[in-house]
Structure formats: C-alpha cells, structure tokens
Predict the structure.
Amino acid sequence: MEFHDYLAFLEQLRQELDTLSAVEQQKIAAVRSGDLAALDACMKQEQAAALSLRGREQHRKAMLRDLGLEHVSLAELSRHCPPQDRERTAALSQQVLRSYQVLSSAQQTARTLMESRLHRIEQELEQREAEHPSAPRTAAADFRA
C-alpha cells in the first residue's frame, strides 16, 4: 500500500462527508416544512451513510497501520508523509477536517430543530389533553371465550 492510496481514500471520505452534509441540510428543510416523508427519506440516507462511515473508519485505521502512521492525527499527517506529498496532504487534510466540521454543525442544527419541534408537539398534546380530557378508562375486555 502506498501513501497515494491513502490520499485517494481521504478524497473519497471528504466527498462522502460533503454528501452527508447535504442530506443534513435537506433534513433541516424537511423538519422546518413539516414534510415527514422527506424527513424519513433523509433519515434512511443518514443511516446508510453512518454504516458506510463506520466501515470507512475501520479501513482508515488499517491503512494507517500499514503505513506505520496509526498514531498520527489527520491534522499532523502532512508532517509525517513523503516530502513530495506534503502540500497535497496538508490541503486535503484541512478539507476533510472542514467537511467534518460542517457536517457536525449541520447535524447539531438538525438535532436541535427536531428536539424543539418534538417539544412543541408534546406541549400541544398536553394542552389538548387538558382542554379535552378523554373519557374515563374502562376495564380491559376479556377475550377468553
């Protein structure tokens, strides 16, 4: 395995993170508009991406181990790579880190927005219950015949 293979891997990872960020933006829009079908589609895409990223993380660790760089962080990678690859490695590392930050921010926004909407729904349900209490509960039916 060569260092160039790892750089190609990082480029693919960056693209996947950017794609997932776009899904998070769609999720935010779906929550804001109350489009449950779109939200469900986004959540399914998000779950598939999460599985893919777990696999990529395992592959990344194996690649770093093969390169003898298993204890080197992404931010430090350009200091440990072949001299001819330092500039590209530094730029790509920064792109991946930036893509991850954008994704994390979008995920936090989506999470906060969903929690806010759920809290509002809970309040509305409680208010409706207070205004229109349901009929008293009756004993459960006996289905034994």
